[in-house]
Specification:
single chain; alpha/beta; six-stranded parallel sheet; three-stranded mixed sheet; 9 strands; globular; binds nicotinamide-adenine-dinucleotide
């Protein structure tokens, strides 16, 4: 039986590692958070105290961590993954870390003679739970087949976006669109409420009209509009506000690197940052609608002057 290590057992890592167990892999897991460890242990993950312990003798290592900082620490640190694994072990990072961090990790892997692929995902916790994630692989051609085979139990569409950095480039561009959609869906919902629209009826209208988008349909910001959406569960994440802001900042970084203008990302980032400062960091990103509604209530409507 093949054994893998899974580092980062949060909202995404928990259901993803569960699919690997169902596919017949032995899974050794690590997380710094007790609740995450307990949740994964219930699924059958063998919890290890350290990354080095989890990685000893495994066929593959997966990371699903918040940002590039944790991924670099876990993969390239002195007792990290690259220092511990056998040369034939495949390391796959599924986190969203951006192009620059991916470049740094590929360079460290090359220096340590390790096999590394980035494979960021799209599809949200919903896609992680029902194993329909879209994977965007960035790695050298000879490793693609092995990486695709390892991702198969969790994926609906597994794409080789290109060589090193291409997976993160695809993810950054995807989440530029997604992040701006979440922000505008929240603005539109706050406006629709103030205009006295019935949000459930507006959902029926918009999803049959030109405003339709995936985040509006699946992560609708209106309470009770979509029963399975975070908004109908007290805005509990889902996808945390600070992680979405991170993704938009990665798009802004990418834009700066190649001289592209992405003003909508900057605007969406600014309102998300304001919501984070209001205490919304760990709530679902669609809770942005709460800050927008608060702000609207503080503004006295201006009467038009003749
Ligand atoms: P999360 O915060 O729920 O999970 C991250 C886990 O990593 C946490 O359990 C945390 O305790 C653990 N962790 C942090 N530092 C660690 C360390 N040094 N060692 C071991 N464990 C550590 O986040 P998530 O929603 O699962 O997102 C994970 C990644 O996936 C992020 O990069 C995010 O941007 C991306 N992503 C999330 C979604 C989503 O809908 N939630 C969708 C696509 C991509």
């Amino acid at each position: 039986m093949k054994t893998i290590a899974w580092i980062g057992l949060g909202f995404m890592g928990n259901p993803m590692s569960k699919h690997m167990l169902s596919a017949g892999y032995i899974v050794k897991g690590v997380d710094i958070d007790l609740a995450a460890r307990e949740g994964a242990a219930k699924n059958g993950v063998e919890i290890c105290a350290t990354v080095a312990e989890a990685c000893k003798g495994v066929d593959a290592v997966f990371t699903m961590l918040p940002t590039g900082a944790e991924v670099k620490e876990v993969l390239t640190g002195p007792n990290g993954v690259f220092a511990t694994i056998d040369p034939n072990t495949v390391v796959i990072d599924c986190s969203t870390i951006g192009i620059e961090n991916a470049r740094a990790v590929h360079a460290s892997a090359k220096k340590a003679c390790r096999i590394f692929a980035e494979a960021p995902v799209s599809g949200g916790t919903e896609g992680a739970i029902d194993a329909s994630l879209t994977f965007m692989i960035g790695c050298e051609d000879p490793h693609v087949a092995r990486v695709k085979e390892l991702l198969a139990p969790m994926g609906g569409y597994i794409a080789h976006a290109g060589g090193p950095e291409a997976g993160q480039a695809a993810k950054v561009v995807n989440n530029l669109i997604m992040g701006v959609c979440v922000a505008v869906n929240c603005e539109a919902t706050a406006l629709a409420e103030r205009l006295g629209l019935n949000l459930k009826e507006f959902f029926e209208i918009a999803t049959r009209s030109t405003a339709d988008n995936w985040t509006f349909r699946v992560w609708n910001p209106g309470v009770g509009v979509v029963a399975s959406a975070p908004a109908s569960k007290g805005y509990k994440a889902g996808f945390k506000t600070w992680l979405l802001a991170k993704d938009l900042s990665l798009a802004m970084d990418a834009g700066r690197e190649v001289g592209a203008t992405i003003a909508t990302a900057e605007a969406a980032y600014a309102i998300l940052k304001n919501h984070i400062d209001n205490g919304g960091a760990d709530m679902d990103a669609t809770s942005l609608v709460l800050s927008l509604k608060d702000a609207a209530e503080k503004i006295v409507p201006q009467k038009a002057t003749a």
